[in-house]
Amino acid sequence: MKRTFPLNTIFAFGWVMALVIAPSPAEAWQTTTSGIAAPELPGPSQSAAPPIDAAATQANGGVAAQGVVQGANQAGQEITLDQALSLARTNEPAFAAAVAASKTAQLDRSIARAALLPSVVYHNQYLYTQPNGQTGSIGSQPAPRFIANNTVHEYISQGVVTETIGLAQYTALARAGAAAAIASAEMEISRRGLTSTVIGLFYNSTAAQERIVIQQRATNEAADFEKQTEQRETAREVAHADVIKAQLTLQQRQRDLGDAQLQAQKARLDLGVLLFPDPRSPYSVTLPAATPLPERAVVETQAAANNPELKSALATLRAKDLDITTARAAYLPDLVLNYSYGIDAPQFARNGPDGVRNLGYSASATLDIPVWDWFATQHKIKQTHILRDAAKVALTSTQRTLIAQLDEFYGEASLAHDQLASLELSVQTARESLRLTRMRYSAGEATVLEVVDAQNSLTSAELAHQDGTIRYQLALANLQLLTGTI
């Protein structure tokens, strides 16, 4: 006889068979009490975000998939640190102004050197003077009314050589050389300042990208744990409070991922302003190879020899000493030598109408001896002494600052380098702790709070390791800037 079953009985039977056939939550996570190890969690050293399964994507509202798409859209060309520095030097207006100031200072030195050499001009002039009606001494030429000129029509076409000899001229050349050294040091200071800015933005952008990877892994982990709690609640193994706690953790991870993506976008724009005409241009940064920490003695030698602040202070002091010499030169006379050769005649011709040769030369030597200027020169000398004393104070301050920065930067780099191994060990320990805690939770031996705490510990350890790596790179870069090796 053919039997029929009620519809609700069929649904109940199907639900029971599904529970029997489907793998248990413990089997899904491979954390049974038979000793099967849980899957290894991804570490922060991975270069790309871990794959996202459909369940995790659905659980976190598509944030993970959005991050992957956004990363693909922003990949663009790869920019190394050297390329970033080169592009920034081309686009930064402050550095361009420093370069222009250095080049003009070099030209000022060439101009001052040229002032020591004789100057040559070809002088041409025509003079007309109203005649007074009287006949002059030369033929029938009328005499001029004004005695300042020689004749009514006077033509001057001469080559004139002039040379000025004095202490001020030689001091001006030395002063221009000191100014060129100052401008060169200031350009180097500007270059290193721009380099420091680019390095900071470069590593900040790199750190922001790595934080996305870490937060993406934490979000996937939270989504997977939220799925596990729901499965265990369905199997009547845990209370609904575990699901709520897992959901709250997932929501927080999603917010942290969104913040990390926003910070990465800001970092990219800040660096893009220095690199591209359009800061929204897609690009990705590539970290340079890690370099070991140099020896302290080598750092001290390079810092003393290549520090631009110290060079600028020394050149400034030398310039102030030369200003004193220039001010004292006002007590001494200047010798001016002049030689002229050409035509100074009533006709613009080599020979006059009466056969007189119009070509000739003249020479003069002028020596003006200062006698009295109402103490103006003495006061100028006092002014230069005051400025020279201020330059000495600036030099000693620069030396003290260099010593302090050397100790500070080297200590920072040394400590950051020593902490890298500890931070890496913390990440490995936190990852193993999370794996064991998930196993204990699957076996019913751990609470949901322990799992959440282990998840937070792993995320914090990964972020700390990533921050420690960037800290060491920045400290090493500051040390290299101080020594002039970058």
UniProtKB/TrEMBL annotation:
- Which is an annotated GO molecular function term of this record? porin activity
Claim: Membrane is one of the keywords in the record: yes
Q: Which UniProt keywords apply?
A: Cell outer membrane, Membrane, Signal, Transmembrane, Transmembrane beta strand, Transport
Which top-level group of life is the source organism from? Bacteria
Keyword match Transport: yes
| Signal sequence, start to end | 1-28
Q: Name one GO cellular component term.
A: efflux pump complex
Tell where it localizes: Cell outer membrane
Give the family this protein belongs to, as stated in its UniProt record. Answer: Belongs to the outer membrane factor (OMF) (TC 1.B.17) family.
Q: What is this protein called?
A: Outer membrane protein TolC
Query: Which species expresses this protein natively?
Result: Tunturiibacter empetritectus
